[in-house]
Amino acid sequence: MWNIQEQILSAASSLNINIEKVEAIEVERMISKVIDKFAGGSKSMPLWEHLKDDLSVNSKDAWLWLGELIGDVETIMFFNPTDEKEAFCFNKGDDVVSVLGETYGFEFYLTNRDLEYLICFNHHDVLIVCGNAIKKLKNINYENIIHSYKGK
User: Fold this and answer.
1) Strands (E), the chain
2) For the chain, give me the number of helices (H) and strands (E)?
3) What predicted TM-score, i.e. pTM, was given to this entire model?
């Protein structure tokens, strides 16, 4: 199996992007609250199979939209606990996109400390959003984001 933590830390370091590990106890509390808020309390994994009130888009390039969905605010990336127990705090959405561009594919989740949204990108190339990310996803101009990223 791949080492997600190693991939993320290596990519962030090579890109000079500052990320921080989130303390284990905070990760556990956050995931528990995410499950209660967005999955109706279902602790079954993977989490994305149990999300309620979500919107999803199937596109292999959907991870490129994270900068637009998250903006210039802090976000926390976490994973299905069987894949990776660590979580990482990023300063902004564009940093997430840059780091992911240097890694191999893996499922991940993003939220903020106030749990205003949940974003997942799974192994089926499906972007799933909950909370206030639904409105943001509905307003994204997908083609412009994909073309500007690939044009870099």
Assistant:
1) 19-21, 54-58, 75-78, 88-90, 108-111, 117-121, 126-131
2) 6, 7
3) 0.91
| Integer Cα distance of 137 and 115 in angstroms | 17
* Owner of token pair 């808020």: 37
SS3 content of the chain, % helix, strand, coil (to 5): 40, 20, 40
Encode pLDDT of 55-110 as tens digits.
999 999 999 999 999 999 999 999 999 999 999 999 999 999 999 999 998 999 99
Other C-beta atoms within 10 Å of 101: how many? Answer: 13
Contact 112, 73 (CB under 8 A): yes
Contacts of 28 (CB under 8 A, 6+ apart): none
Task: Give the separation between CA 133 and CA 152, rounded to whole angstroms.
Answer: 26
133: three-class secondary structure by DSSP: helix
